[in-house]
Design a protein that fits this description.
alpha+beta, Arc Repressor Mutant, subunit A, Alpha-Beta Plaits, four-stranded antiparallel beta sheet, 4 strands, WH-like_DNA-bd_sf, transcription regulation, Tscrpt_reg_AsnC-like, DNA-binding
C-alpha cells in the first residue's frame, strides 16, 4: 500500500495525524489541492484500511492515571488455548494500553496505565487470577520522554 501513495496522499496523512478534526477546506489548502479530490482520497484511504479510525488523545495524568507500568511477562505455557485465554484477558482489561508478543527471553510486554501502585497490584492480582503466568516483572516509568502516535509517511 505504501508504494501506491503519492505526495498528496502523504501530505493528507500528515495533516490528519497532526489534527484529524481539521476541516476539508483546511486540509485541501495545506496540501495544495481542492476539497473534493481531498475528500475522495481520504475516503479511499479509509476504505483501503490505511486509515483505521479517527480518535482523540486524552491526558492520562489529568484523568488521574498517573502510573505507567511496563509489564514483562514470561510464560511456561505455549499452547493455543492458553494464548487465546491470555489475549482475551488482556483485551478485556482497560488498563492495558498496549500488548506485544516478543522474540527473546520475555514473551510479552504490556503497557499498563493506572492511578497508582495499589491500582497496579489490583490489576496484577486479577491477571494472575485469570491465567497462569510463569514470571511477571513490572517496571514503573518515572518519566515519559517521548510518546507519539505519529507515523512517518
Amino acid at each position: 500500500m505504501a508504494d501506491q501513495l503519492d505526495a498528496i496522499d502523504r501530505k493528507i496523512l500528515v495533516e490528519l495525524q497532526i489534527d484529524a478534526s481539521q476541516s476539508l477546506d483546511e486540509i485541501a489548502k495545506k496540501v495544495g489541492a481542492s476539497k473534493t479530490p481531498v475528500w475522495n482520497r481520504i475516503r479511499k484511504l479509509r476504505e483501503s484500511g490505511l486509515i483505521k479510525r479517527e480518535t482523540v488523545l486524552l491526558d492520562a495524568d489529568k484523568l488521574g492515571l498517573e502510573a505507567c507500568f511496563f509489564v514483562l511477562v514470561r510464560t511456561s505455557e505455549h499452547e493455543k488455548s492458553w494464548q487465546d485465554k491470555f489475549l482475551k484477558t488482556l483485551k478485556e482489561r482497560p488498563e492495558v494500553l498496549e500488548a506485544h508478543r516478543l522474540a527473546g527471553d520475555i514473551d510479552y510486554i504490556l503497557k499498563v496505565r493506572v492511578r497508582n501502585a495499589k491500582a497496579y497490584d489490583k490489576f496484577y492480582q486479577a491477571l494472575i487470577g485469570e491465567v497462569k503466568i510463569f514470571n511477571v516483572t513490572a517496571l514503573l516509568s518515572m518519566e515519559e520522554i517521548k510518546s507519539t502516535t505519529f507515523l512517518p509517511v
